[in-house]
Hints:
Helix 4 (80-101) packs parallel to helix 5 and helix 6 crosses helix 10 (283-304). By secondary structure, the protein is an alpha/beta fold. It has one domain: NAD(P)-binding Rossmann-like Domain (Rossmann fold, 3-Layer(aba) Sandwich), CATH 3.40.50. The chain is built from ten helices and twelve strands.
Amino acid sequence: MTLALLIPGGTGQLGHELAARAPSGAQVQAPGSVDLDITNAGAVVEAVKTLASAARSADLPPVVVNAAAYTAVDAAESDANRAFAVNADGPRMLAAACSAHGVPLVHVSTDYVFPGDADRPYATDAALGPHSVYGVTKAAGEEAVLGSGARAWVVRTSWVYGAHGKNFVKTIAGLASSRTELSVVDDQRGAPTWARDLADGLLELAGIVAAGKEPPPVLHATAGGDTTWCGFARAIFEELGLDPARVKPSTTAENPRPAARPAYSVLSGEEWRTAGLTPLRSWRAALTAAFAADGVAFRAGQSQS
């Protein structure tokens, strides 16, 4: 379906892919934080109002897909006010503006809203229990969006990587050229998700809600399967043509970080499938496809090491 899209956070890792993968003929506004600060109420109202007006003029259904977020997990521990402003207050203002102008909102959230103590994939209605400031702020953003009265959907995802911005794949690729061995945590489990596949899924969702369908308000969109950070790093080595045995397993206790990470954050995609949405491909197949498409970007860090 052809849409009029507003993508806050449009210059970031996910936002860039959303803008690039938008359907042919779509009207796309993908401002970065410099052009649309979602913590600025006036700017948010004006952006949504402009979207709604432009959509009416072009006879296109409008949708906001919010990819703006404070994602520096460790930094959030000492920068809680800014993290709350971007991850909770910003979505609240977006949702209010969308409600006022009758615009559907798709809001991206995270596996970090869960406590990480499960032994099976988290259902969408599982109890939240974040253990980090980042997770707390994202949970607050979910609550604000779902309680806003807007036609709104929260989509949780996990371990996102892509060609744009900083991420685990680029970090590992950079370290691979400067270290004989790497020690990577092997007791945290999740689903690495390629930003391009996630963008395609979010755009599919945007299309069906623009058409008036009502999928469940909370959905999970991650790659299929799961692994640990160590397993992910070994797969990255394989894509780089390097020996994965150079990646050695370690524990969370051996690698303390300012923010706690969930030990288990695999998300169930049952509601996504039930809603008729296309499941994302397996994480391993996606990684191979990502290197085929964007290998130059992922390997860039090697030349800088």
